[in-house]
Amino acid sequence: MPKVVIDGIEIEVPPGTTILNAAQRVGVEIPVFCYHPYLKPAGICRMCLVEVEGMPRLLPACITEVQDGWEIYTNSDRVKDAREWLLEFVLVNHPLECPICDEAGECELQNFVFKFGEPRKRLYDEPFKYPTRYLGPLIVHQMNRCVLCRRCVRFSDEAMGGTDWGVYERGYRTIVGPYERDVFAQKYTFNMEALCPVGAITSNIYRYKTRIWKLDFTNSVCAHCEVGCWLDLGERDGQLLKVLHRRGYPSPWICDKGGYGFEYVNHSERITVPLRREGNRLRGVTTDEALEFVAGRLKGLVESGGKVAALVSPHLTCEDYLLMGSFMKEVVGSDYLDYRLYGGNTYPERPAVDSLEGVEKAEAYLVVGEDLSVHHPVLALSVAKGCKEGRASLYLIVTGDSFLFKFAAEHANPLPGKEEKVLEALASVLGGKDYASLLEGTEVSEDTLKAMAQGLQEKKPLIIGGSRLTPEGRVLLKGVGERLGITPLFLDWGSNSKGAFQMGFWSPGGESVEDILNKCVSGEIKGLFVSSMDLFRDYPNGTLVKEALSNLDFLVVHDMFFTETVAYSDCYLPATSFAEDGGTVVNMFWEAKKRNRAFKPKDESMPLWQVALGLSRKWGRPLGDFGTVEDVTPLVRERLSQVVEAPSTLGGVKAAHLKGDIPALFEYPFYRAGMRTDFCNAFVQLVPEPYVTLNPEYGDELGFKNGDIVIMEVDGNQFRMKLFFRDEVPRGGAIVSRGFSDFPITRALKGLWYRGIELRAAKE
Amino acid sequence: MVKLPDTPEHNRVKEFVSQFRGDKGSLIKALHFSQGVFGYLPPEIIEYIAQELEIPASHVYGVVSFYNFFRTEPMGEYEIRVCLGTACHVKGSKEVLETLCRKLGIKIGGTTKDGKFTVSTVRCVGACPLAPVMVIGKEVYGRLSPQKAWNIVRGYYEEERT
């Protein structure tokens, strides 16, 4: 092991350690621009030059490996001079606009000039002036401020496998940016902004809002998906203004939903007082009155023999599920409660891996039934990591995957609704059975499947079953897993499905959301409590939702916005956002993490657990004496340690309705998936309206052009939408976007995400 | 997806580039060949090459803009190369260059609207005794003044007229 002396401190390090890493071990600071712990060292910026005894020149610490006996000086006069000069050179072209720069206060250049620079400028020359580029609603790129560290470009290449972001020209004229696009939003854009050491890439959402030192940061967990990235919520005056990902858990990277998808918290359309229906109007009332009204009506319904059900979003905390569940089961005496409002009829299952590092270590991956980059974006990056480095091979059975296909060794891209047929065929191949007949009509070739089966047998894969799988699909995948000796990792919708399941927030009889809605239609269920979810936007059967809601005697909606579901309600209770109340959430690896409150709930808004508590008090049978969410947490912890058995849901799913010309998959666009994304202004600007996508060749065959306006017809309902060509769509199928609260796209669905559609050109 | 039109030039590029499908390392080869066919690299060729070699178009453009040799604008009929070597610089080649650019209404590296001239710079042509020097096509012109240089360039227009 090489022994080195750094600034007089002796240390022994493993061979291959760079000077920078050795210095970090002994706590000696070396300034860096281009180095980043999670990117490959590049040695570009020369900020980290250090002196080594006996070497004629200064050495870059980030890429030089230490050798035995080196004496390293990080603070000698030569090094100080070099730093001064470097900063002076950088500042020749760097505009002095710190007072109007959003990065000021967390700018690495600012810090270094303050620490290591010399307050003088000897070269007075006209600096380069590049135009400011507003690259869509997420980021602003100001080339003037760039120090050419290329962290953003390296992130794009190393983590995302290359995007439309590159380095052009050379030498002092080098510029960075997109080549083709005017709008840059590529699922992981936030990391590029976060990596930028200066203000060259800044957030458009945070632009000119406040100063970083005026924000109070609170540790929290992202509420969009069950990867559960840790966030730092920056609050000022009751507004959530900035989100950072400083603690790098579970992955050093996060996605744009985590980084930018918080605007709904401060949305101006948010309703923060309870409303009560009076005829055709909703009148503002006090919380007390509203709770009294709701409890009274529910009690009346139960006493007259009606049933009451609760449908709650899978994005809330365990405390919410626990108290609401107790209220429904113990106080109201209802057996109908569910959180699976995205549709689907599966319950969470324990995985074989316990962390993202575990995922990254796998030698091969089999992903079935979900575009990971849309619903679990950070998991997709982890899967891509191993494949990018050539360590692992990736096998996909996913319709219309939009990110991971770049890394896939074999990509089966079946027609919508045929993923499980292909999975069945794969199981047959592995079992040595005949499979050719199963592949008919899936658009997947036998060669792809054979290669896939061979690859899976050679290396031990990690099997990931996506949220689109039906219970039957999960059984098939488990069968494949057993044959290979692996327990699959099953993913669910929402950010806390696991928690909701563990808290027992599901019907003991095993009823699905569809059954509950059907019971509303038949009149068995007379009262319904909906929390934090617009059923019309997310539940994949708009017609059923409409029938069910119009047939109810009493509907309470606990939400933040006036959604279509609220329009049917008899009482509206204002909900808090994820930043306003703490609680426990369970991530995809069944780890319980704590969400913290960043600021007080706005006006009258209440988290669900408080609503449940308030209702139970008004009912006359209080659930307990809880003052804050921390009082509930011990109960949650206790529940989390118990083993919960899920009821079987096999046989409950009807076949996909695929009659019609073109089988279509209804999938969320990235910026529309997740919680309340249609109240995030930036995301709404990125994806303003739903669209249909077709494979270019197939589109040509049908006689359409990219960008045409088409009419999609389902069951005689017509939807007028734009048509785009995308290479990732399988030939012969279509992908239609959903997740729009102001566009009734779910009316085209019948409980599953697949539907046969007819397309024709719209008349001018 | 980029589809190239069905012309003999485009077909030659297609034929050549399709040999290297998915092979990043052949980027320079593909660019070199395509520039040989067209004289420059139009955007659709850059995108086509990116698609065939399975790399982002931004990378291809990064390489194109890095090397002096690659051009993204069509070349004029004549290339005027003004020497900016030490001797020529001392003798005022900068004024020559500026005058030509101004009179032709283009920037360095640009091409006139009629496609006749492209102005570029060169470090030294080895004719220092004749400084300042410019090269048009294969002809070397020395001992220039801005006016003299412009007269020579104008001569090319007149030559065409007669």
Strand pairing plus helix content of chain B: what structural class?
Answer: alpha+beta
Oligomer: heterodimer
Rg of chain B, nearest Å? 19 Å
CATH architecture of the largest domain in chain A: 3-Layer(aba) Sandwich
From the spread of the alpha carbons, the general shape of chain A counts as: globular
Biggest interface: chains and residue counts? A-B, 15 and 11 residues
Question: How many domains would you count in the coordinates of chain A?
Answer: 5
Helix segment tally of chain A: 23
Q: Counting H and I runs of at least 4 residues, what is the number of helices of chain B?
A: 7
Largest sheet of chain B: 4 strands, mixed
Gross morphology of chain B = elongated
Query: Would you identify the CATH architecture of the largest domain in chain B?
Result: 3-Layer(aba) Sandwich
Q: What is the terminal separation of chain B in angstroms?
A: 48 Å
- What number of domains of chain B? 2
* Regions with little confidence, pLDDT below 50 for 5+ residues of chain B: none
Average pLDDT confidence of chain A is: 92
Sheet-strand content of chain A, in percent, reads: 15-25%
> What would CATH call the homologous superfamily of the largest domain in chain B?
Glutaredoxin
In this structure, how is the largest beta sheet of chain A organized? 7 strands, mixed
What report would you give on this structure?
The complex is a heterodimer of chains A (764) and B (162). Chain A is of the alpha/beta class and 764 residues long. Chain A contains 23 helices and 33 strands. In chain A, 28% of the residues lie in helices and 20% in strands. The mean pLDDT of chain A is 92. Chain A folds into five domains: 3-75, Ubiquitin-like (UB roll), CATH 3.10.20.740; 128-266, no CATH class; 275-346 and 497-640, 3-Layer(aba) Sandwich (Rossmann fold), CATH 3.40.50; 356-490, 3-Layer(aba) Sandwich (Dimethylsulfoxide Reductase, domain 2), CATH 3.40.228; 662-761, Barwin-like endoglucanases, CATH 2.40.40. The longest helix of chain A is centred in the middle third of the chain and has 17 residues, at 287-303. In chain A, the strands form eight sheets. In chain A, strands 15-14-25-24-23-16-17 form a seven-stranded mixed beta sheet, sandwiched between helices. A six-stranded mixed beta barrel of chain A has the order 28-32-29-31-30-33. In chain A, strands 2-1-5-3-4 form a five-stranded mixed beta sheet, sandwiched between helices. With 162 residues, chain B is an alpha+beta fold. Chain B folds into two domains: 8-66, no CATH class; 78-161, 3-Layer(aba) Sandwich (Glutaredoxin). Chain B has helices at residues 8-17, 27-38, 43-53, 57-66, 86-90, 93-104, 146-161; strands at 78-83, 117-122, 134-136, 139-141. In chain B, strands 2-1-3-4 form a four-stranded mixed beta sheet, covered by helices on one side. In chain B, a hairpin with a 2-residue loop joins strand 3 and strand 4. In chain B, helix 1 runs antiparallel to helix 2 and helix 6 (93-104) packs across helix 7. Chains A and B meet through strand 8 of A and helix 4 of B.
